[in-house]
Design brief:
Elements lengths: L1 H32 L1 E11 L5 E4 L1 E9 L4 E12 L2 E12 L7 E8 L2 E13 L3 E8 L2 E8 L1
Antiparallel strand pairs: 1-2, 1-3, 1-9, 3-4, 4-5, 5-6, 6-7, 7-8, 8-9
């Protein structure tokens, strides 16, 4: 009887610590995501799986508005061969999944509004962010520094 009661109490404590830990992780993640990030590297992978690495400058800014969403502005320039290409987009992001890894982006780019489903945070620390954004033309992978 005593063992059963102790086991139940121990299980309850572990469950509570797990829940508290995940809440703190989400709050920490949101705090780390907010702010201005400078681009470190840019990779584009076309639908056939070929990846291209471009020298790039610029960055992204995340502004948290609610627990799971906010606004963003992505502005960068990269060099492809002899061409210098400038990309700029802004919109809203929304973590509508059960984790803080996948998010959707509701953006306006070149005057056109669309949605990028299932963008992904691969890594985030206080000073580093690696994220992927898939779209019809391919997948963009960025590494940013804060």
């Amino acid at each position: 009887m005593w063992i059963s009661s102790t086991l139940k109490t121990t299980s309850l404590i572990i469950l509570m610590l797990s829940v508290l830990s995940s809440c703190n992780k989400d709050r920490k993640f949101e705090k780390e995501l907010s702010g201005q990030w400078t681009i470190e590297s840019y990779e584009f992978t076309n639908p056939n799986g070929l990846s291209y690495y471009y020298p790039a400058e610029g960055g992204i800014t995340f502004n948290k508005e609610t627990e799971n969403s906010g606004t963003y502005t992505l502005d960068y320039t990269y060099v492809s061969g002899t061409d210098t290409i400038h990309e700029s987009e802004s919109g809203e992001y929304n973590f509508n999944y059960d984790d803080t890894e996948h998010y959707d982006m509701y953006r306006t780019k070149n005057g056109i509004s669309d949605t990028l489903k299932n963008a992904r945070i691969i890594l985030i620390t206080k000073t580093d962010l690696r994220t992927e954004m898939g779209e019809v033309s391919g997948r963009r992978t960025f590494v940013f520094n804060k």
